[in-house]
Design goal:
- By secondary structure, the chain is α/β, with parallel strands linked by helices.
- It is built from 10 helices and 15 strands.
- A hairpin with a 3-residue loop joins strand 10 and strand 11.
- It is elongated and about 60 Å long.
Length: about 250
């Protein structure tokens, strides 16, 4: 494959998936890692993508967020693995908070048959909770159509009526210095409030969120246990210095 063809394929992969692992690019192009790394350096210099640990990502504004529909189609298998790990932290009789988000959404079918009580701000979560016969409460608040979440002061005030054994929170960015972040300050406030009323706090994030930052801070990196998918040794070593890490082992 000629260099222009290979680099165009890389650009197309990043546009389609948002974040692409180095090994996936190597397989798709049938090229060595060293060649792909040189391609990524060149494409980054042209501002066509940005390099991240273990791959490449699209150039997104810190205030830009994918819609819930877009999120549910990205890294689906990774999210299912993370949801399964999150479920291993839940006990019968728990009262839990499920944040609006595509990864927490994957937990809902796994809750069927368990004696748990769920509180959520996720509009897309409601029907799935009902279908899986999970006892659940929906927060009130301002409807955010883009992410299908209930946010704002009303949602945060509703949270004050509850105390949770565990909360499971989604995030757009995971960074050792800047913590957990998301584009919308109102949504960040609801996440932060849920964390404050939970005995145990879990952040759910696939590999694409690592070393990323968004506009509004949710919490410092050490304030929650981080549940994620497969990470390389470098990332594992970095984040284990700051927080408890639960990850997929293959």
């Amino acid at each position: 494959m000629l260099t222009p063809e290979r680099q165009q394929l890389i650009i197309d992969m990043v546009k389609e998936h948002g974040v692409v692992k180095l090994r996936d690019i190597v397989e798709a192009t049938n090229t060595s890692e060293s060649t792909i790394r040189r391609d990524l350096i060149e494409l980054e210099s042209l501002q066509l993508l940005k390099r991240v640990h273990g791959g490449a990502a699209s150039l997104n504004s810190k205030a830009t967020e994918l819609s819930m529909t877009e999120k549910t189609t990205k890294n689906v298998q990774n999210k299912k693995l993370i949801a399964s790990l999150a479920m291993s932290q839940i006990n019968e009789g728990d009262c839990i908070y499920l944040d609006a988000g595509s990864t927490t959404f994957e937990m809902i079918p796994l809750l069927k048959g368990l004696d748990v009580t769920v509180v959520t701000n996720g509009l897309m979560h409601v029907e799935a909770l009902f279908e899986n016969e999970v006892t659940a409460y929906l927060l009130g608040g301002k409807m955010k159509g883009h992410t299908k979440a209930l946010i704002g002061n009303m949602a945060a005030e509703n949270l004050q009526s509850f105390r949770f054994d565990k909360c499971f929170i989604g995030t757009n960015g995971v960074h050792p210095k800047y913590g957990y972040t998301t584009p919308d300050p109102e949504e960040a406030f609801v996440k932060k409030t849920a964390i404050s009323f939970s005995e145990k706090k879990y952040i759910l994030a696939d590999y694409s969120k690592f070393s990323e930052t968004s506009f509004a801070k949710i919490a410092d990196i050490h304030e929650a246990t981080l549940i994620t998918d497969e990470l390389d040794e470098e990332l594992t070593s970095t984040y284990e210095k700051f927080t408890t890490l639960i990850k997929v082992v293959k």
